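_Per-residue structure_
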Amino acid sequence: TRAVNEAANNYDVVHYYFRSFFFDKISLEWPTAMDILALRAAGKVVVMNYRGHEVRLQNDYARLSPYNYVEERPSGVTNFPDEQQRLMLDFARSVASVITVPDVELGSYVPDAVVIPRALELEEWPHIGLLDDDNPLIVHAPTKPEMKGTEFILHAVENLQKKGLKFRFELVKGLSNAESREKYEKADIIMDQLRMGYYGVLAVEGMAMGKAVVSYVREDLLPAFGKEGAPVEVATCENVEAVLEKLITDKIYRRKVAKRGHDYCLKYHDSNHVAQKYKELYQDCIRNPKPVDFAGAMKFMRYQYEYHRKNISASENRAQNALSNLQVLAEKLKA
């Protein structure tokens, strides 16, 4: 509540990153998201900036991506049920001034969202380039192995090693942020992910440093890059071995991939450029205030009320059963 009071008293625009202050992703139980409604009632512009699994609806994801991980049910993802995701999204549409996402993959789940790319402070991630033409170092961070397709990467690396290709491979895990960064700085090829459908934060950092980045981008999203093409070398769970083999054996091509990614990063992911886009969006929201859809907000609050009522009823039933059991036990003890 302190953060909400501070925002209401001191700011004109409140930009939420991933979720509201009050949030329960399993049940959406009250007071989930009520801070958004309170800030809008106070006349504030509210920007909902979604980042990933909170809007990557499982049923839609399974339909859109042939390499989805829905059946594996990785923790932290599938415990946010589709019904609750849709309810939260509908509430955000009804109450927030605007919804933003960082890429077109997430935009496919929230088609009414404004796409503003991920931002990186480029001065903090200076260009390093490729370091070893003859014995390139490939790195991969298996922070979420099922979601990143780590098993497919490891299988591809093992096969390439059996072929006798000259390269090095390291998994970046169990390290501090500073130690992990040292590994990325020394890399020539950075393996991002093979299942989510779009490149992530590590890929952007790799492009900024001038590394050749490999990542899966959904085929239907590739036209969004236009004539420039994807800034990463696109790979799938099926062809990752062939993609890596070309990057390992063809150093000229590897340099082209690295340069393409770096140029793209400078153009689209520079934090100054992204900040300007958000500034323009904030100003537009202030000039053209969007009214709150109270019917949509009430639908969400009705769900919260029904959830609360059912829980109270269930608790009362449990209490009554417990009391009955105690009465039966007391009668037995008397006997």
